[in-house]
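ok here's the first one, seq then struct tokens
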Amino acid sequence: MLGAENLADKLKAMAADVRGKSRDTIDKVIQKILFLIFSLKEWTLDVAKRTGELKDAAMSKVALDAGKRTGELKDAAMSKVAGSLKDLQQSSSEFTLSIREGAKRVAGDCREGVEKLTQKFKT
């Protein structure tokens, strides 16, 4: 996310040197980048919160069931929860990686757009 924020700062600096419609266009690009960063951060926080809630609920259920049952049932439940949590952890890791890759891709696309704008103003 830091790369996209740096890109927004560079665009702000560029916008200070530009006038008219070009400045408006750069301002719109900056706003879209900042909104995307905000949305991705909110999405990531929501996923982390839900993951924690699911983990807590699963652990509470396992603890309750384990208190009522013995031996093999307890071991089986713990094994299933551990497997589910491991799967959830893997999914969360893949999701986080996907978000990072998407943010990098957007930042790269924005960077290309800025480079095109820069070339346009140089000529």
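and now the second one, same deal
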Amino acid sequence: MTSHSYGQVAIIRTERGLTIAGTRITLYDIMDYVIEHYPPKFIRA
């Protein structure tokens, strides 16, 4: 798997937990996908 950097992404602390700045996506959401072995292409979408 290749790592790509398209810009700087900030992680901010909100009442929902740690969130990707400018979105409602939490790190918990992403970790659920990673644990279930979803492909990176799906997670990025």
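notes on #2: The two ends are 17 Å apart (CA to CA). The chain has one domain: 11-44.
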